[in-house]
Write a structure and sequence with these properties.
308 residues; alpha+beta; Jelly Rolls; five-stranded mixed β-sheet; 7 helices; 15 strands; 26% helix; globular
Amino acid sequence: MAESLELPVIDLSSSDRISTANSIRQACTDYGFFYLINHGVEEQLLQSVFDESRKFFSLPLEEKMKLDRKEDVGFSPIYAENLDSSTTSKGDLKETFHIGPLKDHEGHINQWPSKEILPFWRFVMEEYYQKVLAVGKHLSSLIAMALNLEDDFFEKVGALDKPFGFLRLLHYPGEMGASDEIVYGASAHSDYGMITLLATDAVPGLQVCREKLRQPRIWEDVSHVKGAFIINLGDMMERWTNGLFRSTLHRVMPTGKERYSMAFFLDPNPDCLVECLKSCCSDLSPPRFPPIRSGDYLRSRINAAYSS
């Protein structure tokens, strides 16, 4: 059994922004994960998104496949994705639905279930998308302050002038079936982008590995905190900070219970150049990662996950 991890709790409603930024800095250097409370997304809206997600994933497979993933948006069935290419698994035991930017980005035209089948689905998802995007941008200003930067730094460098946000609905079925190999709901991975805002139901399964280069890996359970988002940083934040802020390895293990979650990936504008911050490197600590366009990095990681 994995040990349970006590993650820091960050209150987004605090009027003391400097103290909050300092707490975020500690959480990002120690864990790369934390809980976010008082974020302003209403409990009723969260419940509506879970309800609509359940309705969609309960549809017959042939109905869901009408919205098969194109240009990174739409439905992906069980085993379509493998987040850990080092495993021999045939894929992750989950099905997903992706909703991309609602505007400002060409090439990503969202797919929506028929109004005859799910009349409120698009309205609920768009409302949630906009609310969580606003939370992510608010949080990004505090992360900038945590790095001793101006609070609008990520806007100024072209990361969040046109943010590349993706909402990912996830369904992990309870029935695993017989198999000789280890089955993962989501195999071990770090997130690709900037910030992830995760909402989960109360079903366990999420685990983190704080020391991703150490063998054997030590996994710790992340508990559910009602009403809180679980926040974690992605690889681009690790690249920006030269490894000061962690992009932590995590996975989802099946528990035999059906599980739903919603991950919102707040990623930089694809044209944004991600390079080491001057405050995070020195002669003794030179940049560990070469500069890269956000869109190029995301594309390489996404293609690898769906290449099997």
